[in-house]
Amino acid sequence: MMFRNTALQTLLRGWCYTLPLWGVLSLALAMQLAHAATIPLAEAFRVSAADWLGWAVAAPVLYLLITWLPLEKSNWHRALPVQLLAGIAALALVIGVRSLFGVAPRPPQIFQHELPEGPGPGMDPNPPHGFPPPPGPGPFPPPPPFRKPPLPQPGRPRLISGPEWFFRFRLPLHLPALFVVLAAAHALYFYKRGQERERQTLELTAGLAQARLDALKMQIQPHFLFNALNSIAALVHKDPAAADEMIGALSEFLRCTLAGSARQEVPLLEELEFVRRYLAIELVRFGDRLQCDQDVPPETFGALVPMLILQPLVENAVRHGLGRISGPARLTIRARREREMLKIVVADNGPGPGGSDAGQGIGLANTRARLQELHGERGQVEIRTNGGCSVEITLPFRIP
């Protein structure tokens, strides 16, 4: 039932396109014929429409057949005979439409040439006197007498030869039209199939990228949770009140994170709120020694950034930078727009990364991978060490 509905919709949509198209072509040819042959436009349109409107009916049917059995390398031995038979049926349909318009092929008419008996119309039966007599026999022999052509005998109809039928049915016009319609139908079919495959490829690529992003985001959350639980375990005996406060802050952060877990990108202002809730957890451990500064202009609040893109950077700065110093710890978050790009910097006054594995942790590796999946070469991460450590991420500036 679904196939029948789809086929009917294809035919109806095809006729809605082809009838006006072939109608305009018939009208244009009729105008040219009326001008060249000095006949009424209505008569010229009847003759032109008889040739072309049949194709308006046959073309969608041929296209539907091609979508069902296209001429491909794998099935050409089955598709070719079927399409040839369909082409013959289309020609028969076109000839039938011609007969509906009253221009069907007729048997040839035989004109009888007879000598006039008596004076013709407008001639005087008694010519006036004074005309010279007709010339007598001269040096030239008289012309041979006119002989009537033999009449066809009754009961024996005259047969029309094959070449005559070929031209009377206007096959020199309709055969090229058939090949053009078949070629156009194949071109349209393969074009639509190519578009469909391209759409499926894009959907698969987008689905794969989404799966990778989800996997990367799921790596961030357990890593952060593991570190937070270690901090709570370290405080539970030393400072139970601080541990209890950290558990409450962690619960609020996880609740906020899970509420937006279905999104890959969030406004920068919402991402800064995630960072604030995370720093509320770390402030329990650092106390007044941790100072957080924020330099983010309001024009960048609505810019889209990957969800939880800043939290691993801030976590690295707190644990691997500020956690290694005993004096005041300062964390700074800056953002600015540079033309069509957004730059975000997370900086600290710690000693910076050391060793050959600096910058290769889970947080930075996931940040690079997520930016690469979302923005390609336009998403970049750079690490600088100069009186501390700063991580700068660059991504396209986009507003939802």
Keywords:
two-stranded antiparallel ribbon, 5-stranded mixed β-sheet, 7 strands, 400 residues, Heat Shock Protein 90, alpha+beta
Layout of helices and strands:
Elements: H1 2-37, H2 41-68, H3 76-100, H4 162-168, H5 171-235, H6 240-259, E1 265-267, H7 268-286, E2 290-295, E3 304-306, H8 311-321, E4 329-338, E5 341-348, H9 362-375, E6 380-385, E7 389-396
Parallel strand pairs: 2-4
Antiparallel strand pairs: 1-3, 4-5, 5-7, 6-7
Helix pairs in contact: 1-2, 2-3, 2-5, 3-5, 5-6, 5-9, 6-7, 7-8, 8-9
How would you explain this protein's 3D organization?
The protein is of the alpha+beta class and 400 residues long. Helices cover 56% and strands 11% of the residues. It has a domain at 213-396: Histidine kinase-like ATPase, C-terminal domain (Heat Shock Protein 90, 2-Layer Sandwich), CATH 3.30.565.10. The strands form two sheets. It has a five-stranded mixed beta sheet, covered by helices on one side. A hairpin with a 3-residue loop joins strand 6 (380-385) and strand 7. The longest helix has 65 residues, at 171-235. 22% of the residues are buried. Residues 104-116 have low confidence and may be disordered.
